[in-house]
């Protein structure tokens, strides 16, 4: 009996111990799984555990507030939406620790960690919209996105460059995991890309970190990159431990030796709005201007882009360029603006890209290019070497061949004397300054072999303060499409006074065949994008038909010829050689428009004497301002220093408006008188 109750008590104690062991196992199945897998890994020669071991000495040096666990196989299987863990999640590391894989899992790590390429469903009727960047879970607190991949050949090999964006999902500082980045090529080769020495070591709460990697391999054959992998390597054990945490398939790889972009989402038509892929900036761009220009720097295509800040804060435009492509060659372009371009919320600005080309080049398309900066790791005490690799982001169509120049301000029908519609985004012409075309004339002679077009503009400062004189340039396009650059009169004017108008003239040399019945006149800004021009305004007009009238226009002056008389005078001693001069008596009425200012550089009233053979034998000019200016009433004009020593009769008197330009004198024929 004594033995029986002792046996019963022993049985109960054994049962109680067994039950105590069972309850924790039921409550924490994952912990048990970790212990089991850990025991198995201790007996293995090479471990492929998904959980990262305890931080090494180098990890401890990096600032971090949380452990960075590796993802499970299920987590790494597909892209995920970006969602930060809650504070409760961050405070419970035991529940977020990732269990190590079993022996079966370790046998096939690639299949478990392969991330499928994202797909976008679309119907035929839906607009083509670029898919959002594919973001994949790298570990429990960091997500990864491949920004770009680049291949560039040179005589020394092929450079492989990669740009990756890491996203911190925590609401506190997080360490950037020091995983290796490896790429797999189309022939199965695997390359490890060293990290840039300037890559971030930590990320602030909810911050993104843009990381660059680059390597040069001694290969000249054709290949491409098919996937990018993040690999955890523990070099503090032997043999070293390697675990592929995430593999991302890639299809868009920029190959500089085969420059092209076939992705339909990355192909943009002319004038189509776009954002720069891989950028988080809210800036949007659109091509609005395209012209071929030739100056002392050579021939170039100049592309104007309209930039708009669609965000809520001030933005600084990132660096990019446009490269031009022909059938067999790529011409690198360059952003003309050298200073940083900043835009306030909702603001719009123009930026310009110049693409230097060879003579006769016809571009087929353009590539929007960005550069990723890379600094090679250097030995202690050595100077780091900075480098970069280019990435083609978008393919942009050029205007249709034969279209010619495309302007942000197309030519509009114009009524003489009315204000010209100037691009509101222009900074060259003040918003309170009105520009109008007040005179347009054309003339030529058989001896010249060409015609001269003179365009006269009025600048009216409507404001109550002084504004800068807008030194714009001009050009005209004739009926055949050829473009002719204008020459501005000599000017000393720098400011426009309030509530006053000023006059400036431009002259153009055009072929003798030009009729002037269909002229396109463009006002150009040659300051903002110097040394190139951009269009401020464009107008379509025609040269008015000339009428034979006694009232002549020299805007802002009108001169009415009431009467005239030309007499010859002789000088010398009888019996010796006589010399002749001519005296012309004019009866004029000179009127001037109020509130229009002219200076000593204003055009002059010029008269030429022409003999019966069409030879000019003398000329004289009279200014409209200053000493000896043209006045109302009788005025005597003396012709001396003649090119003949004989008395000529009859003579023809040509009256011109003479304009002094940096290229010499430009004359506009106003009236012809005959004896």
Automatic annotation (TrEMBL):
It comes from the Bacteria. Keywords: Signal. Residues 1-27 form the signal peptide. The keyword Signal applies. Residues 44-111 are annotated as: Disordered. This is DUF4179 domain-containing protein.
């Amino acid at each position: 009996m004594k033995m029986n109750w002792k046996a019963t008590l022993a049985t109960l104690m054994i049962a109680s111990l067994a039950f105590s062991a069972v309850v924790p196992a039921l409550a924490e199945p994952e912990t048990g799984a970790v212990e089991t897998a850990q025991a198995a890994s201790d007996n293995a020669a090479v471990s492929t555990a998904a959980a990262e071991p305890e931080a090494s000495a180098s990890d401890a040096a990096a600032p971090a507030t949380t452990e960075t666990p590796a993802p499970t196989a299920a987590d790494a299987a597909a892209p995920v939406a970006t969602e930060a863990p809650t504070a409760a999640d961050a405070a419970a590391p035991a529940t977020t620790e990732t269990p190590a894989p079993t022996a079966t899992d370790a046998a096939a790590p690639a299949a478990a960690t392969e991330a499928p390429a994202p797909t976008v469903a679309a119907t035929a009727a839906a607009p083509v919209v670029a898919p959002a960047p594919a973001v994949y879970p790298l570990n429990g607190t960091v997500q990864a996105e491949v920004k770009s991949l680049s291949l560039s050949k040179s005589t020394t090999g092929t450079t492989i460059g990669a740009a990756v964006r890491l996203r911190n999902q925590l609401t506190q500082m997080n360490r950037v995991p020091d995983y290796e980045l490896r790429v797999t090529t189309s022939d199965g080769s695997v390359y490890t890309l060293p990290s840039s020495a300037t890559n971030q070591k930590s990320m602030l709460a909810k911050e993104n970190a843009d990381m660059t990697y680059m390597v040069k391999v001694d290969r000249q054959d054709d290949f491409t990159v098919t996937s990018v992998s993040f690999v955890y390597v523990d070099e503090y054990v032997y043999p070293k431990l390697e675990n592929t945490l995430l593999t991302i398939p890639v299809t868009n790889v920029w190959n500089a030796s085969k420059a092209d972009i076939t992705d339909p989402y990355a192909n943009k038509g002319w004038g189509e709005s776009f954002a720069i892929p891989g950028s988080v900036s809210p800036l949007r761009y659109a091509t609005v201007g395209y012209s071929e220009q030739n100056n002392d720097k050579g021939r170039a295509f100049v592309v104007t882009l309209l930039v708009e800040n669609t965000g809520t804060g001030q933005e600084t435009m990132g660096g990019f360029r446009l490269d031009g492509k022909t059938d067999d060659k790529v011409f690198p372009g360059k952003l003309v603006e050298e200073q940083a371009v900043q835009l306030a919320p909702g603001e719009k600005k123009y930026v310009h890209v110049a693409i230097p080309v060879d003579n006769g080049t016809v571009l087929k398309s353009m590539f929007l290019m960005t550069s990723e900066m890379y600094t090679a790791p250097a030995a202690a005490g050595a100077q780091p070497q900075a480098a970069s690799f280019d990435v083609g982001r978008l393919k942009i169509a050029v205007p249709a061949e034969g279209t010619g120049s495309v302007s942000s301000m197309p030519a509009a029908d114009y009524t003489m004397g009315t204000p010209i519609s100037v691009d509101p985004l222009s900074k060259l012409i003040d918003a309170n300054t009105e520009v109008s075309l007040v005179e347009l004339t054309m003339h030529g002679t058989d001896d010249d072999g060409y015609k001269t077009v003179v365009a006269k503009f009025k600048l009216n400062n409507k404001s109550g303060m002084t504004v800068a004189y807008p030194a714009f340039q001009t050009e005209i396009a004739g009926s055949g499409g050829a473009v002719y650059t204008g020459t501005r009169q000599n000017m000393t004017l720098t400011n426009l006074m309030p509530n006053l108008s000023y006059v400036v003239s431009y002259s153009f040399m055009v072929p003798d065949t030009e009729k002037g019945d269909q002229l396109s006149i463009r006002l150009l800004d040659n300051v903002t994008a110097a040394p190139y021009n951009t269009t401020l305004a464009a107008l379509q007009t025609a040269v008015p038909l000339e009428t034979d009238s006694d009232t002549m226009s020299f805007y802002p002056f009108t001169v009415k010829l009431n009467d005239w008389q030309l007499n010859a005078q002789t000088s010398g001693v009888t019996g010796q050689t006589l010399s002749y001069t001519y005296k012309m008596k004019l009866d004029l009425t000179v009127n001037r428009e109020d509130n229009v200012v002219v200076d000593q550089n204003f055009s002059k009233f010029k008269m030429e004497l022409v003999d019966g053979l069409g030879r000019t034998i003398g000329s004289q000019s009279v200014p409209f301002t200053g000493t000896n200016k043209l006045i109302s009433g009788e005025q005597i004009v003396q012709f001396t220093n003649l090119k003949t020593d004989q008395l000529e009769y009859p003579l023809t008197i040509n009256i011109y408006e003479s304009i002094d330009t940096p290229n010499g004198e430009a004359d506009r024929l106003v009236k012809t008188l005959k004896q």
